[in-house]
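pinned: reference chain
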Amino acid sequence: MNKIFNIGIVGLGQIGIYLYNELHIKKKEIEKKTGNKIKKIIINKKNINKKRKFKINRNIFYKNPLRIFDKNKIDILFECVGLSDGISKKIVETALKNKINVITPNKTLIAKHGDYLARIAENNNVNLEFEAAVAGGIPVIRTLKDGLSTNKINKVYGILNGTTNYILTEMEKTGETFHKVLKKAQQLGYAEPGNPKLDLNGFDAFAKVRILSALSFNNLISKNDCIMEGIENIDIKDIKIANQLNMRIKLLGISKIVNGKLFETVHPCLVGKNTYIGNVNGVMNAVITQGYPVGESILQGEGAGPGPTSSSLLSDLVSILRGNIKKPFGLPSNKRKKINVLSNNEYTNSLYLRFEVKDRPGVLSKITNRLAKFKISVKRIIQTPNKRNNKATIVIITHKTTESNSSKCLSIFKNDKNILQKPILIRLYN
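pinned: its C-alpha cells
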C-alpha cells in the first residue's frame, strides 16, 4: 500500500447511507484496484440516535458537519446533503480551501456554484468530482471530459430524469392518470414521497443540462432564463393521441449551439416510436451527443436511485485514489468562455396543439385562420367529435414556427367562447 486515506461523508440520507454501506463492503476491492488504503470513514448527520440498519461509531460521528475538519485529517469528502446553498456550499467550499478532494452527486450545487468551486479546487490542486450529478450511474461526465475531449460537440440532449420518464411510460402502458401514476412512483421510491416538485417541474433535468453544456462546449455555466417545463400538465388524453400518431411524450433536456449561440431547454417533446430516444422507457436515462469527428454517441442506463448514484460516487473515489488530479470541467477555469445565448423567441419547433371546443360550424376554420396570421402553417388535423355533448377535440400538428409566434398566437384564444379550455401545446422534437 502506498498511501492511507481518510474519508468523510456529510449527509446520511438515502444516498449517504447506501454509500456508507458500499464503502465498507467494497473497501478491500477499492484498495486492491488503487494500491492505497482507506483507514477511517468519518460521518455527519444531525441525529445520531435515529434508528438505522447499522451502528455508528460515536467517535467518528459529528452533528455539526464543519466539526469534521477539527480533529481529523480528511483527504476525500463526500457531500451528500443535496442543497444548492447553505451548508452544502459551505462544507464543499471549506473542504476545497483546506486542500481536501470533494465528491458530490449534488447537481443543483454544481449548476449554481460550479464555476466558483472549480476555481477553488484548481487553486488548491485538488479534485471536485461530480459524476453522480448527471444521469446517475451513467459515466457521462467522464465521457465528456476524457473520452470525447478531442471532439467538437455541437449538441447534447436526452432523458435526464428517471422519475418523469417512469411516470410518462406508465401512463402510456396503463392508461392511468398522472396523479395515480405519481402515487405509484412514490410508493416504489422513484419519486420523493413528500415533495417531488423539482423532478416534475423540470428543474432537476435543467440543472443537469447546464452541467452538460459547460462540459460539452467549454463554456462557463450559463445563467440565462430558458424554457423550462415539466410534466405536471400532461394529460392521459395527450398520451393516447400521441400513440395514435405513432409517437410518445418524453421530457427532454436539450443543449445545442445554434449559429454560435448557446440554447438550453427542458420541456416535454413528442418523439417518434421508431427513434432511439422514443424507446428509452421506465426509470432509464439516456444522453446523446453529436459532434465531430465522432458523430453521434449514446449513453444509457439507470439514472436514479442510491445504487446507480453510489456507483458513480465510487468511480470518482477510485479515480482520486489512483492519483488523478483533473480540472472539474475538463479545462482550466480561465480557458473556459462566457458564451452568448440564443433568445427563447428564436427557438423553432413543430407543434402539437390540442383544442377542446364547442362543435359548431366555423370553429375549425377560425382556429386555422388565426394560426395563419402568425405564420403558423398546418401540417395535419385530427378532429374527434363528441356528439353526446356537442363538443369536439381538435388536434393540429404544425410545421416549424418560432416560440415567439406560437406564444403570441395562443394568447389570443383566451377570450374565444367556443374554446372550452386553455389550448395544450407540446413541442415536437426536431
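why pinned: The chain has three domains: 4-133, 140-301+333-344, 345-428. The chain has a mean pLDDT of 92.
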